[in-house]
Amino acid sequence: MTFERPNIEVMEGYMPGEQPRGSNIVKLNTNENPYPPGPKVAHCLSQIGVDSLRRYPPPLANDFRLAAAQLHQVSPENIIPTNGGDEFLRLVMTTFVGAGETIAVTKPSYSLYPVLAEIQDSKLVEIALEDDWSMPKNFAKRLNELNAKLAIIVNPHAPTGSLLDCHYLAEVAHEFKGVLLVDEAYVDFIEPELDYDSIVLINQLPNILFLRSMSKGYSLAGLRFGYGIGPEQLINPMMYKTRDSYNTDFIAQKLATAAILDTAYAQETWDKVRASRKMLAISLSQLGLSSPPSQANFLLCDIPEIPGALALYKSLKAENILVRYFDQDRLRNKLRISIGNDAENQRLVSAIERVL
After folding, report:
1. 153 burial type by CB count under 10 A (0-12 exposed, 13-18 middle, 19+ buried)
2. Would the pLDDT of 22 be above 80?
3. pLDDT digits (tens, 9 = 90+) for 200-213
C-alpha cells in the first residue's frame, strides 16, 4: 500500500553528480567554479551576527532584487530571487502549466526537467537535437503543434556547451504561443566578443523568461541562490502567488547581494575559466578526446572506443578524479568534464594520458 500520488509512485528522482568527501580529490563532475567567492562575500559573511537569525528574512529579498536589476538594467519588478535556479524552474511549471498539459524540452538536456514535469503531473515531450547538436528544425512550429504551455531551452546548452544567438531565441518566442524559459545557468562563461545580451528581449516579448544562477559564475553553489528575469506579467504571479513565503534565507540574501555587487571580481574568474577551457580542449584533443566548441564551464568529450567512456570514467575515479558519465542515448561514448583550475586540469590530462 502506498500513499503517494500515482505519478510520484512510478517516477524516478533526480540523480545529482557525486559529492565526495575527503581530500586530494579533483572534482570535475558538477560544473562548479574552481575559484572561491570574492573578498566582499567573505567580509559580508564575517559581519553576520548569530542574533540576526532569530528573525525572518526580508520576504521579497529586495536588496538583491535592486542589485540584480541594476546589473541587468531592468526594474526590480523584473527580478524574482529563488532558492537556487531549480526553485525557479519549479515555480514556472507550477504557475504556468497545469496537470496533463505539455512541457517541451530538447534532448539531451538538463535531467531535472523531466523530474519536475513528472512532479507537476504534466506531459513532457523531448524533441531530439540534430546530429550536430543544433536545434530541431521548425522548433517553434512543433511546439505549437504540441500545444505546449512551456518550452525550456538551456543556453549555453548542457551538456554540449553550444550557444544559440539572441536572434534565434527571439524568433522562437515570437512564434511560440506558450511561455519560453531560457535556462542561462552557464551564461557567465560565454566569450565576451560574442556580445551575447539576451535580457533586452523581456522588453520586446511578453512570453520569455530567463533563469540565472549564482552557483557557477559567482562560486556560490553551496549557497543555493538563483533568480529569474522576465516581464512583470510573468514575474508577478510567481512573486506574489506561487512562491513559498520567505523562500530565500537571510544569509543567502546577504551573500548573494554582496557577490552580485562585486561582479568585477567574478568576471576575473570567468576569464580564467575561459582561458583554461581553451587550453584543456587543446590538450584533450591531442589525446584523441575531441569536443564541440563550448561556451560553458565544461567540455563534452568524445571518448575513443578503447578504453570507452565508462571505463575511462572508472579509471579516473580510481585516481580520485571525478568527471560525469551519462548512461543515456547519444552520450554513452562521452564524458562531461568541468573546467578546473590549471593544476586540476593538468592532473586530469596526465591521468588520461596514462590510461590511454
Report:
1. buried
2. no
3. 999 999 999 999 99
Phi and psi for 320 in degrees, rounded to 5? 65, 35
162-194 pLDDT, tens digit per residue, is 999 999 999 999 999 999 999 999 999 999 999
The per-residue pLDDT for range 218-248, each reduced to its tens digit, is 999 999 999 999 999 999 999 999 999 999 9
The CATH number corresponding to 6-37+264-355 among 3.90.1150.10, 3.40.50.2300, 3.40.50.12780, 3.40.1160.10 equals 3.90.1150.10
125 contacts 146 by C-beta, under 8 angstroms: yes
Q: Which amino acid is at 76?
A: P
What is the distance, to the nearest Å, from the Cα of residue 278 to the centroid of all Cα atoms in its chain? 21
What is the pLDDT, as a whole number, of residue 23? Answer: 82
Nearest to 71 by CA among 222, 257, 224, 269: 257
CA–CA gap between residue 17 and residue 240 (Å, rounded): 33
Domain 51-263 has CATH 3.40.50.1820: no
Q: Are strands 324-325 and 321-322 parallel, antiparallel or unpaired?
A: unpaired
Residue type for position 85: G
In whole angstroms, give the CA distance from residue 245 to residue 238. 11
Quote the CA–CA distance of 164 and 147 in Å, as a whole number.
23
Q: Using CA atoms, how far apart are residues 292 and 168, in angstroms rounded to an integer?
A: 20
The pLDDT of residue 199 is 98
Q: What is the number of residues in the chain? A: 356
**For the chain, first and last CA: distance in Å?**
51
What is the pLDDT of the chain when averaged over all its residues?
A: 96
- The set of cell numbers assigned to 356 is 590511454
The domain segmentation of the chain, as residue ranges, is 6-37+264-355, 51-263
Question: Which residues lie across from 229 on neighbouring strands?
Answer: 79, 210
pTM over 0.85: yes
Closest CA to 35 of 270, 252, 349: 270
- Give the CA-trace dihedral at 78, 83, 86, 92, to 10 degrees: -40
Contact 160, 324 (CB under 8 A): no
Separation CA 148–CA 162 (nearest Å): 24
Sign of CA dihedral 155, 204, 217, 95: negative
